[in-house]
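Annex B, item 7. Sequence and structure tokens for protein A, then protein B.
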Amino acid sequence: MERPTSALVRVVPFFYGWWVVIATGAIIFLTSGTYFYGFSTLVDPFEEEFGWSRALIGGAFSVAVLAEGLTAPVAGYLADRFSATRLLMVGVLLIGGGFVVLGQIQAVWQLYAAMAMVAIGVTLAGMVCWVAIAHWFAKKRGRALALMTGIVATCGVMVVVLAALISFFGWRSAVVMIGISQIAICIPLALTVRRRPEDVGLLPDGEGHAPGQSLARPAASPKGESAAGKKVEHKGLTVRQALGTRPFWLLTLATALAWLGSMALIGHLVAFLEESADFSRGAASAVAMGIPFGSLVGRLSFGWLADYVAKRRLLAAAYVLQGAGILIFAMTDSPWQAVLFLIVFSTGWGGAIPVLPALEVEYFGLRAFGGIGGLLSAIATLGAFGGPLFAGVVYDTMDSYRPAFLLMTFTTMAAVPAILMMGRRPGWTREAASAPVA
């Protein structure tokens, strides 16, 4: 019996890989915006209703980031081997269900549990999306990642949607409504996604059909067998081999340093602007929304350049912009400074998003892309975990976020030399690139 995606391949008037980009981008848009950027809109409601400290509330975001990191290697392993559709559905159900649970909390441990549930779902769904696009494109991988992350960039509107729902219905009803909407919209999208072009008889970048296959034949099994019965092999390192390389550890260190500052900033952005810069909640939420929207320029431009320019230099440039943006943010006390912060930080933040996975493929290949990327994320999460928690502790101790953000300017900048020390891409990738296609 023919699978639904095979029929859709014939209906879609362009290469089906671009539909995968659109569908995965839409899923991340609807699930990550309210979780990642919207958390800061819940800080004040939690404090007002429960009387929790900022460190305690910020700890929930840190726990969520930690849950992402711990889940990432498992999610990567699964994404390399099993059905993208099924994994996406599980991820979406965890995310939507987590928001529904969040609307029922009465104790801080329940907040932490709900945020961890959402984070695990976001990690699983996100990893599947990254792996799928990495497989569907080769020559145009940077542009495909740029388009997908460009769609995701507009998820900042979900911050305003969440803030509006909180104002009209209260925070409990708002998060429940968000969770139900995510499930209703994202499950149908998940049904249209396949992990690799070979699963529907195509080749990467839309360069014809896979040998011995046609669109009328059944899709490949999730374990890597093509319709013709041949296992599809991909060049690259195993997880164990990647762990033995210098570039893996340098890239992991750089990612951890960069995430330390950016996660702290995003987790406390609204609260900082309200109290340290005297912004209204609406204005502060608008700035939070501006980060993903502003990152659109970085995502599209850096992603496009990644197909033509050295990716490690692009990532280093992105981290320079992030560090400079955090410095500007630490000094912000007026609207024009907030605008300058958005221009600088958002460009760097957005630029790093498509370049990082493209750089991972360049150095480590597709053979265990999900597993290697998941392990890298898990280790780098130590930085992401510490950022929001550290900023909350500094605020509770000094009644100001500024010292924390000033320090994190330097940690972010320290990621730059680590990236540049990775050196040129490994020799095996150049050999694979020059090898004839069978």
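Protein B:
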Amino acid sequence: MHNYVFNGDADGLCALQQLRLAAPRAAAGQEALITGVKRDIALLDRVAPAAGDACTVLDVSLDVNRAALAGLLDAGVSVRYFDHHFAGEIPVHPGLDAHIDLSPNVCTSLLVDRFLDGHCRRWAIVGAYGDSMTAEADALARAAGLAPEAAARLKALGLAVNYNAYGETIADLHVAPVELAAEMLPFSDPLEFADASAACKRLADGFKDDMELAKRLTPVRQTPGAVVFMLPDAAWARRASGTLANDKAKTHDGSAIAIVSPKTDGGYLVSVRVPRDFSVSAEAFCRRFPTGGGRKTAAGINHLPSAELESFTAAFEQQFRAETSA
């Protein structure tokens, strides 16, 4: 059995697609796909350990999955790990093949593209666009000889696939990530997938409708260097939260952005975007909170208790207002 454990966003799905195209498994039952919504990252404990099995992990923090990873390795499961989020100390074990790079200009799809020597590069470009690595994706598209119109279509696909992963539960999403992975698999060219897939059309239409609603939002708090948006308690808002954070980071260039989303069972989900040149990263700031994590420019908090909302916004403003006055 080969277990693929992956983030349900564009980066995780496009990394998965590249590896599955590069090494197809013909026999039925040879694969298990384990994933969830964007913030569902404690995934390795869902893998049933069996000696001799293999596991490929894509775009989820090693640090969050440390105990489960150790259990798999001790049980004789070989693990190949691709990621660009905070990892902490990487275990040294003969069964672990780690491809972890925390550089701000890489994502998991680009790490897999590097590993495969560009074997499925168009899917890597889709993943990079979806993960808001726009400059890197543009450069890769030019190097691959893609016409501007084709690159624009790959960008639109990446954004739509990425947006689909944001939700509190699978029920919030237009298409479950496992179903999307199944629809993607037959297509070596993502442009053909965009033309032929019914799921892709659903994502494109849903993305357009949700972002029209998101455009009407205004900040609830704004100081130089720090801008906070509060979303309504609605499925469209939960889906739009990640893309909205990326868009607002571009609109408010030079400021840190926080998107706060109410959770159906109480508390809040928070997405944070921070400019690359700020001294404190999004990941470092969010890790001050018990369920926080991410990477240098994009991070989040999976559960912020309602009672801590004011203290969070105060800390956010104090930290990033200081950046602009330093």
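Comment on protein B: The mean pLDDT is 93.
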